[in-house]
Amino acid sequence: MADLDSLRTEAEAAIAAAGSSAELEELRVRYLGRKSELTQTLRSIGELPPEQRGPVGKQANQARVALESLLEERTRELRDAELERRLVADRVDVTLPGDPPEPVGSLHLITQTRREIEDFFVGMGFLVEHGPEVEWDYYNFTALNYMPGHPARMLQDTFYLSADVLLRTHTSPMQVRVMEAHEPPIYYVFTGKTYRRDNDATHTPMFHQCEGLAIDEDLTLGDLQGVLLAFARSMFGPERAVRLRPHFFPFTEPSIECDVSCFQCGGSGVLRDGSRDPLCKGEGWLEILGAGMVDPNVLGFVADNGYDPERWQGWAWGMGIERIAMLKHGVTDLRMFFDNDLRFAEQFR
Predict the structure, then answer these.
(1) Any idea where the domains of the chain sit in the sequence?
(2) What is the pLDDT, as a whole number, of residue 267?
(3) Which of 239, 245, 272 is nearest to 258 (CA)?
(4) What are the pLDDT digits (tens) for 23-63?
(5) Among the four 51, 65, 100, 279, which has the fewest Cβ within 10 Å?
(6) CA angle at residue 161 from 153 to 149, to 5 degrees?
(7) CATH class of 109-348
(8) Is residue 270 packed enough to be buried (19+ CB in 10 Å), middle (13-18) or exposed (0-12)?
């Protein structure tokens, strides 16, 4: 961690002293590029002892965000200075945009929400992976304890490219893929597009998910509850509480659904005027995700890679990124995310 402080100090001094846009680009590659020391540190957090992953991941991520902000600010300063010199030399530049210039564009609300979720879990010491959207039936169903003929398969009707190849219905296949590639312990989150044959105000044929997987010794539902509570407070405010309800998923046992206390009524179910809260329907709780302890049958599919169910255990969760964005920003219809209506999209620039 001392090395990270030293690296951040060195980078901040170099950026502040940069005299040209080209020099700034070289500094960006040196300190934030794919082969930079900071990036390598973030990628290797999973190799650290468990007690070090959170603090180191948080410090490295804070350093990355600070350097990106400083680079952006210094780039703007140099660009303005270079423009000023050209204006003095050219006197009149009829190609200049109006003042203030119209922004070229911005990140979509789904992308903003996905990055916010990823940043939180990176700070907790998790690594981020994505994975293929076109998936084998084995990874999407069988290796997750959805055996052929299992009735739960009917709840995830999707688009098949052949008898054994389909558009993935969830990001859960990455659980097995990562366990095949890495020995325990592991802490990962997976984000990306998923597909099901649904289309109404709360479902679309394509949507985004965030999956989490932690495998270690002696992990319990209590550990999972603590992580989900920290996540809920990060996304929805520091006063939030969570509750876990029994549920069923084929690849977790026991399985739970997680609710967060309603941030519109404060968990009472009643608004200030005494009326029933329409957001939580008067219940005081909002469902945000499903989770549970990884079923030993799932670990059995990767037992040859060191995942002995008698020694290793863990938990997994899955959430819809659109669901999180809808709750946080008060979006009433899921289809609004994909209608390309600028009146909606520009509210979240």
Answers:
(1) 2-90, 109-348
(2) 84
(3) 245
(4) 888 888 888 888 888 888 878 887 888 888 888 778 888 88
(5) 100
(6) 25
(7) alpha beta
(8) middle
